[in-house]
Specification:
The structure is a single chain. The protein is an alpha+beta fold and 165 residues long. The chain has a single domain, classed as Aminopeptidase (3-Layer(aba) Sandwich). Helix content is 32%, strand content 34%. A seven-stranded mixed beta sheet has the order 1-2-3-4-5-7-6, with helices on both faces. A hairpin with a 4-residue loop joins strand 6 and strand 7. Helix 1 packs across helix 2 and helix 3 packs across helix 5. The longest helix has 15 residues. It starts with a strand and ends in an 11-residue tail after the last helix. The mean pLDDT is 92.
């Protein structure tokens, strides 16, 4: 399994996953193409044996102190193996590299697995958007992460690294 930057040639594979993961509210090809080309976006794909099995996107305007996780999707057959966490961590690490202080996301209120993943990485619920996901009438749970604190928590201490002082 390999994470790499998404390129425009990944669009067809990304859209296949997009439609499978979000059947009622998938983005259009044009919307995703714009995201892949945007200077404010950063998309990464997860590949297994040359096949895209997941993707994720971040919107982080250079110089801004906040960023948004746009999307994360994993092929059904690849779920439950830590790939979503790897993609999420890659997005947050990129946000930190861009100088972001806070990372936001929206997650469906009826997706407790995703909510648990985000909470386990330090995201906290900060609000709700009623009936945000259409046409399903599902609320969005708005979550926020302190990216700087997350970054510090990811850095192993000398003790954790087995260094004797």
């Amino acid at each position: 399994m390999t994470l790499r930057d998404a390129v425009p040639e990944d669009l067809a594979a990304i859209m296949t996953l997009e439609r499978a993961s979000f059947p009622t509210d998938a983005w259009s090809d044009a919307m995703m193409r714009e995201e892949l080309m945007s200077p404010h976006g950063w998309y990464v794909v997860d590949e297994v044996a040359g096949r895209v099995t997941g993707y994720a996107g971040l919107r982080a305007v250079r110089g801004a102190k906040d960023a948004d996780v746009q999307t994360i999707a994993i092929a059904e057959a690849s779920r439950g193996r830590g790939r979503g966490r790897a993609l999420l961590r890659a997005l947050v690490a990129e946000a930190v590299r861009r100088g972001v202080h806070e990372v936001f996301l929206e997650v469906r209120a009826d997706n407790p697995v995703a909510q648990a993943l985000y909470a386990s990485e330090g995201f906290l619920e900060v609000g709700r958007r009623p009936r945000y996901y259409q046409p399903d009438d599902v609320d969005a749970v708005v979550m926020k992460l302190d990216a700087r604190a997350w970054s510090v928590a990811q850095t192993p201490s000398a003790e954790d690294a087995g260094v004797c002082t």
